[in-house]
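An instance follows:
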Amino acid sequence: MGESLMAKMVAAVAAKAGGKTAVKKKAAAAKPAALEPRSGGRLLADAIIAQGATHVFAVPGESYLDLLDGLYANRNRVELVTCRFEAGAVNMAEAHGKLTGRAGVAIVTRGPGACHAAIGVHIAMQDSTPLVLLVGQIPHEETDRESFQEVDYRRMFSPIAKWVTQIDHESRIPELMAHAFDVAQSGRPGPVVVAISEEMQKRFASVPDIPPARVAPAHPSPKAIDEMMEMLGRAKRPLAILGSSNWSEAGRAAIAKFLVANNLPVAVSFRRQSNFDGNHDNFVGDLGVGADAALVAHAKQADLILAIGTRMGEPVSQGYTLLDMAGATPLVQVFPEQGEIGRVYRPALGITSDLDAFAAAVKGLRVKKPVWGAWTKQLRASRLAQAEAPEYEGPLNLARALQALEKALPADTIFTTDAGNFATWPTRFNHVGAKQDFLGPTCGAMGYGIPAAIGAKLTAPEREVICFVGDGGALMTGQEIATAFHHKVNPIILVFNNQMYDTIRMYQERTYPERISGTALTNPDFARFIESFGGHGEVVERTEELVPAYKRASASKKPAIIEIRMNPEQVTNRATVADLRRQAKK
């Protein structure tokens, strides 16, 4: 073998060996450094941040001191919102989840704290809102001794949560927390409850954080879309019903493009006014508690229902009376969770799809010759007719006052609402615009409005936040006003004061007229109540006073209450107490 050839072979071998060495060096360089051990409390805080949370709403407890310390270590990465009551904390987190589409995070202590928090979990379940609730737990070695504040959270929360788990081993924190967020935000979103045992938070583990999963959303079947369009093309009296709060801004725009281009009449489901521009000629009202009788009648006359994002639950279906459950009226139901499609009403066509993905798939589709133009105009005329303010006895015409307020509000206002008859006034007489948001509990939970307004303002501090709440709900969670001051946000709260639990009084007068029992209330001066915190208070007793009061409240830049003193006899926007008594005696 020649010397030059030998030299080349040696060089090649050396180069190959060097290459391997280089690969080894590269691999060594890429190998992660040894993980520093972290306490379970720090791992929990880091896991919350790893999943993208920006706010944590909490009432502190000794059962999660180590998690609190972990949040302190991350105080520049996540905002810890200190609340005054667990129900308020979870409702703030739920409102955050509605606005962002990401799981709101709340933390409460064991036993009583968890029990107080349960109502917020129930709201998130029925509203399909992504939520992760962490609950402090006893040391797991003490399980089944009825230790101090011991509760089995799997048994307690399983009927009202998507998933309930307990972390007893610190090494599993990243895994279980990542899965908790995945479950809360996937399919039909909802609440997940994670119990965190006390001593686990103190132990140390060297484990990596787990980032959010990248999962492509479920897209509708092209064949199903074609079939839907064929069904729509044969219809003469179609009606679209938009539900869910799980729409992005782009998704809302896309579905609106489809509905408007096909000149479809559009109703929204209970407390889902954000889903479609209430000022648009295609908007025909809301199907929920207190729905317009004309809209309900029209819905029963429809020959095709496009139920997009709604479960067609009890409020939307008017107590399951709107449709024949066997499917006499063709129903197309679009929902992200297949198990919910046809749960009550058998659809002619079910489409399992992420709502934004469905909207993107249909936004460019058109029916060639729609024949329902007159039908859409008829439903719109009914909506406009019911929104006309009637005459009401006394100096305050609340309908006209609210309509004047609507014109004074910013185009991107966020509304939150509590539960009660008062809530039907803005639903009937106001129109939520395309850039506005409307947050309310579809399960009818009182005490939601004020915490939700604070959660919304913390989430979007640059936007005006208006809360509608009755005098009953205002004193259920009104102490959370202190949270607004503590965290320097300024929602404006409209308290509708008629000195009663008016929804219950309405039913009472229908069934037991003139036998008032348990529904009368004694209230504080709500304006002075917020002034005692250092806020801005107003009292409105006349129609023309509401808009100036709002302007002063907004200009104050302080948390504000506008107490609207209503006529107690006007128990609904359609009936007085005397009306109900007359009807009951017939």
Summary: The CA atoms of residues 251 and 443 lie 25 Å apart. The first strand starts at residue 38 and ends at 39.
